[in-house]
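From: lab user (bench 3)
To: helpdesk
Subject: output format question, protein + magnesium ion

Hello, I'm new to running complex predictions and I'm not sure whether the block I got back is the full result or only part of it. Here's what I submitted:
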Amino acid sequence: MTGASLLVADDDRVARDLLVEILEREGYRVRAAAGGLECVQLAEAAPPDLALVDLRMPDLDGLEVLRRLRGLGPVPLVLILTAFATIDTAIDAIRAGAYDYLSKPFRVDAITLAVRRALEAHRLLRENAHYRAELRERYRVENLVGQSPRMVDVYKLIARVAALDTTVLVEGETGTGKELVARAIHYASRRADRPFVVVDCAALPETLVESELFGHERGAFTGAVASRRGLLETADGGTCVLDEIGELSSALQAKLLRVLQERTIRRVGGNETITLDVRVIAATNRDLKRQVTSGSFREDLYYRLNVVGVTMPPLRERRQDIPLLAQHFLDKYARAADKRVSGFARETLAVLADHGWPGNVRELEHAVERAVALSSSELILPDDLPDHVRGATAARGGGVPDGMTLEDMKRWYVAKVLEDTGGNKVRAAELLGIDRRTLYRILDRQAMEEDAGS
Ligand SMILES: Nc1ncnc2c1ncn2[C@@H]1O[C@H](COP(=O)(O)OP(=O)(O)OP(=O)(O)O)[C@@H](O)[C@H]1O
Ligand SMILES: [Mg+2]
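Helpdesk reply: Thanks, we reran it on our side. This is the complete output you should expect:
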């Protein structure tokens, strides 16, 4: 983006002149400030596309400049320049909203590359923002919060599949918003004013799943005193979500496959064939492909379901969404409780940004809900957050050994939360923001792996 307007602020004249020269040579329009105050004044007079701001300046330091620039209106792009390239200051700067940092002494190509990259990323972001607004207009995805590229991909996919009647498989860890996505697809589709039905395949014993799904005739089994429509039938004309599809027994997998192929059902104990018009969305937090490989899930059913696949990214892989989600939940719970809590203290945001969120968005939502309830000030303080959320941050500096894999980290974390709760799994599941069944599954899997490993 040649022609972009840049602002360089550095009290060191040599560095400043060098930057101006390099960047002008690249075709940018460059203004220079000899200090933090002047930088803010120039930005006020005409906001730049990008500001390069030295961290250490005698009148206003870079972080303060950043804060004031943010106060001026739309968040400007800021690259922080630092001669003290410790990871800490850099992270502080990024947390405070800087786009990136550059360490001194500069290398010419590092500067031009960083500037080009920042401007390009910003342009994409703006386009995406535009695209999202349009999506939001046309399709109702406003209940999904997040602007990370990964989420934008999800929005695009929702928009694309909503118009069709294809079966969709939504995969992702617990609490990543799979059900929300299924809902968004439904409400963006022509089926929006028809039923939206969720069946939790894991919550029911096998015998019940079958009659829940397909319904039953009177006398089909003991206790079937009247005939009843199944959930698939209830969803006729609309959308049926089969949650935790990976838990379906092989007998039911076979029956479901037939339903998807023939678009008809037969109630348990019934002879009549009932034709259905239902869009099926399957969801799972297990690796279904792996279940196919290991033989616990039918391959033909997998391909029937996975006509279009949506994979929800875990929260730790889209950390830029954390502040947005946190604020969204804060507004929601503050409004509900009629409390005057308006935002997060900076340190609190830092803790939230650092946490691993194994329970993903649900865990974040619970943490914020609890914080709003506990908070006695206008801003949420780190102390208002659950111990384990703060604890993980503290431990990151020391406790967790380097070289831990994500899997190790998860294991360590679950163990730690269990320890905090004195082994109370119900409470631990709550703190992790996952449901109890999921926790049991994680523990079972760990036990199995440990058995296998020993
Ligand atoms: N992108 C998002 N924006 C706003 N809220 C979200 C988002 N993702 C998830 N949530 C919220 O987090 C909670 C969990 O979401 P949801 O039930 O859709 O997750 P899930 O992936 O189905 O989890 P599970 O595998 O445990 O069933 C819900 O309260 C939901 O509203
Ligand atoms: Mg779910």
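A quick orientation on your result: Residues 393-402 have pLDDT under 50 and may be disordered. Let us know if anything else is unclear.
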